[in-house]
Amino acid sequence: VRSWPQYGELTHQGVDDMEPAADADPRGKRDPRDFALWKGRKDSEPETASWPSPWGPGRPGWHIECSAMAGKYLGEAFDIHGGGVDLRFPHHENEQAQSRAAGGAFASYWMHNAWITTAGEKMSKSLGNTLSIPSILERYRGAELRFYVVAAHYRSHVEFSFDALDEAAAGYRRIEAFLERAGTAEPGDLPEAFAAAMDDDLGTPAAVAVLYDTVREGNRQLAAGEDASAAAGAVAAMLD
Predict the structure, then answer these.
(1) d(Cα 232, Cα 238) in Å, to the nearest integer?
(2) Does residue 84 contact residue 115 with C-beta atoms inside 8 Å?
(3) Distance of alpha carbon 232 from its chain centroid, rounded?
(4) Is the Cβ–Cβ distance between 38 and 59 less than 8 Å?
(5) How far apart are the first and last CA of the chain?
(6) Within 13 Å of residue 175, how many CA atoms lie on the same side as its CB?
(7) Residues 32, 20: contact at Cβ < 8 Å?
(8) CB atoms closer than 10 angstroms to residue 84
(9) Spatial distance between the Cα atoms of 186 and 239, rounded to a whole number of angstroms
(10) Alpha-carbon distance 105 to 174, whole Å?
């Protein structure tokens, strides 16, 4: 890691401030913080878990697999790399360092999302506390589930509950009800406040607030016998 001067730039850390992983394989390392691009097979590992290479039998390191996939499907330079906030270090730091050290521009922007939790714990397969999307879609439409998820900022933790999902689904149906009352609406102009919220680090909570405000104004116009076509067009554009 000391051979790459920019190492640590993603997480704003200096190399000397980093703690090496307690279970790191020390073989071939100049520094305990170094990470493997190719992990040599240990004598205790089966031969079927390795591949031949100029450096002997082994397998790709964890981080190199992701750089390889990104390069194959997205190219040496691409716009956005996403992932969970828990992967920022060391995984994404290492992934970026090795890709740029190899000459690629790699990702222009990183977007690290927080977790969806249940009972305060991250929802993950390894913890056995996941909810499958098909099972949720037996009770809710896909649009309602998406609306529930995007109502929180992607960097905010979401404590999943069916009560909260019920509330989000009801809110989405109120938006649909307004559009039905206003008649079929073609997408119109996006409200400036909506665009500003989305341009500000994908600020979906503020964007959803603009959506609700526009629906309320449209309902007021309908109740007063006024033309609500502009509001309906704005709502349709935001949903689009």
Answers:
(1) 10
(2) yes
(3) 30
(4) yes
(5) 45
(6) 24
(7) yes
(8) 14
(9) 11
(10) 45
Whose tokens are 């116009």? That residue is 221
Sort strands 121-122 and 116-118 into parallel, antiparallel or unpaired. Answer: antiparallel
**2's tokens:** 């000391």
SS3 of the chain: the string is CCCCCCCCCCCCCCHHHCCCCCCCCCCCCCCCCCCCCEEECCCCCCHHHCECCCCCCEEECHHHHHHHHHHHHHCCEEEEEEEEHHHHHHHHHHHHHHHHHCCCCEEEEEEEECCEEECCEECCCCCCCCCCHHHHCCCCCHHHHHHHHHCCCCCCCEECCHHHHHHHHHHHHHHHHHHHHHCCCCCCCCCHHHHHHHHCCCCHHHHHHHHHHHHHHHHHHHHCCCCCHHHHHHHHHHHC
pLDDT in tens, the chain (240 residues): 999 999 999 999 999 888 877 667 778 788 888 998 998 998 898 888 899 999 899 999 889 999 999 999 999 999 999 999 999 999 999 999 999 999 999 999 999 999 888 867 777 777 776 788 899 999 999 999 999 999 999 999 988 999 999 999 999 999 999 999 998 679 999 999 999 999 999 999 999 999 999 999 999 999 999 999 999 999 999 999
Peptide bond into 90 cis (omega under 30): yes
Please state, in angstroms and rounded to a whole number, the distance separating the CA atoms of residues 181 and 216.
13
